[in-house]
Amino acid sequence: MIPWLSILTFGPLLGAILLALLPEGKPKAARGIAFGVSTLVLLGALGMLIQFKPGTFHYQFTQFAPWVGSLG
What we know:
The protein has two helices and no strands. It is an all-alpha fold. It has one domain.
């Protein structure tokens, strides 16, 4: 199962970090990174749209990650 929610949430954050680390005076590289990250997020959203099942009443695209096991 592809973690669509994580991709859509952390993809732009990763792009922002990459842009922040980019040396000043590289506008073409900045545009390329921004375009690439935006394209990946768009593809992730389209992937979710394709896999969406409108006839169901259950939550879709849920993710589970164990947090702190000792707390229950």
